Amino acid sequence: xxxxxxxxxxxxxxxxxxxxxxxxxxxxxxxxxxxxxxxxxxxxxxxxxxxxxxxxxxxxxxxxxxxxxxxxxxxxxxxxxxxxxxxxxxxxxxxxxxxxxxxxxxxxxxxxxxxxxxxxxxxxxxxxxxxxxxxxxxxxxxxxxxxxxxxxxxxxxxxxxxxxxxxxxxxxxxxxxxxxxxxxxxxxxxxxxxxxxxxxxxxxxxxxxxxxxxxxxxxxxxxxxxxxxxxxxxxxxxxxxxxxxxxxxxxxxxxxxxxxxxxxxxxxxxxxxxxxxxxxxxxxxxxxxxxxxxxxxxxxxxxxxxxxxxxxxxxxxxxxxxxxxxxxxxxxxxxxxxxxxxxxxxxxxxxxxxxxxxxxxxxxxxxxxxxxxxxxxxxxxxxxxxxxxxxxxxxxxxxxxxxxxxxxxxxxxxxxxxxxxxxxxxxxxxxxxxxxxxxxxxxxxxxxxxxxxxxxxxxxxxxxxxxxxxxxxxxxxxxxxxxxxxxxxxxxxxxxxxxxxxxxx
Length: 505
Prior knowledge:
By secondary structure, the protein is an all-alpha fold. The chain has a single domain (3-27, 39-504), classed as Sodium/glucose cotransporter (Up-down Bundle). The chain is 75% helix and 2% strand. The relative contact order is 0.17.
C-alpha cells in the first residue's frame, strides 16, 4: 500500500456508502420475511418481488461494474465498435417480453428453482439437466471474476493498492449473501442503481461543458482515431458490420440464459411482473449509451491511463473533487457486489438442485438443500476470488468471452422446449455438445477471441463464434429430432400434474 497516494476524502466517502450497503445486506433477511430454510425463499426471494424490486434487481444483474468499466474502455480503445452493447440490449427486451413470462409460468407451475429443473421435468433423467447446470456454473465463474476486476480498478483509483481490500469486500459479500440470500442484492440494488444514475447524469452533464461541448468531444475523439489509423473511429468501419451485428445478436440471445438473469426473472411475483419489467428496462439502455460515451470524453480530456480499464476512474479523478470520486467508486464497487451476489446464488441453486441432490440419491430436507446451496455460493465466490488473485486479468477476460459461447448452447433446450414438444432428448444433448465443442475449438484456434473471419464469395466476414456454435447446435438438434423415434417418456412427464412432479422432487 502506498500511503502517499491515498485520497483520504475519497476513501472516507467510499467507506461510508460501502458500510451502508453492508448494513442493508444483513437486515435484508427480515425484508419480505419468509422461511430462509427453504431454497425458494433463500435463492428466489420467495418469488414475491414486484415490479419495482424486479426492475432494480434485473437491472442490477444486467448492468454490472464491469459494464461501467469495460464498455467505456472498449469505446476508448476501438471507437464505435464498442457500442455493440446498445443494439444487444434493444434486441433482448422483446425477447424478455415474449419468452421469459412463459418460462416463469412453467417454472412456477412445477415449483422449479432453476431452468435446468424445468428441462428435467420435461425430458426426465438427470444427466442432461446436470449438463445444463454445469454449463451455467462454468460460464458464470469468469463473469463473477470480472466483477472483481471492476472493483480492483476503482479501489486502485482511491490510492489503495494490494489485494487485501478486495478480499475484505468479498468476505463481507459472502457473509450477507449467506445470511439473507437473494433478498440482500435485491435490497442493495435500489441503492446501487440510484447511485449509478446520479454518477452518470452528473458526468454527462458537466464533462462536455468543461471540454467545450459534445461537438468538441466527438471532434477530439475523431482526430485521435484518425491519428491511430486502422479500423478505429467514431463511425463503424464497413468491415466491422458483420462482427458488430452478430456480437449484438449472439449476446442478446445469451444474456438471459445466465443463472443470475434467470434467477432475477424467476424471483418475480408473476408473469405479468416480468412483462412489465421488459417494458421499463429500456431505461437502462439509455444509461448504457451515456456510459459508453465516457470513452470518447476520456479521449477529449487527454486521459492516458496505464490500462484501458482505468479510463472511467481516471476521468473522474481528473475532472471532479475527491468526494465525488469516492461516491463514484462506491457506486461502481456496489455495482460489482449486486451481480456477483446474484451470480453466486444462481450458480449455487444449479449446483444444489441439478448436480448435488440428484446424484446423492437421498431425500433431502428443505433445510439440508438450502444449507448446501449456501455453502456452494461461498465456494463459487471464493473460486472467483482465487481466479483473480492467481491468474492474469487478461486471461480472465478472454475466458469470459468463452462464457458467452458456452451459455448460448443451453438456449435450444430451454427456449425451444417452451414452444414445441417435437425435440428429442438425445438430439438436444448431441446438439448441446456439438455447439459447445465447435464453439470452444473455434475460439481456441483464434487465441481465445470471440470472433472468427469467414471467407466466401471473395469477401471476408468476421462473425461471433457463439452464434456459429449456436447454429450448429440447432442444426444437429432438429435433424436428429426428425429421425429419432418419439420419446414416450417425455410426453408422459408432460402430462403429469405439476403438484405430482413437485412431490417427486
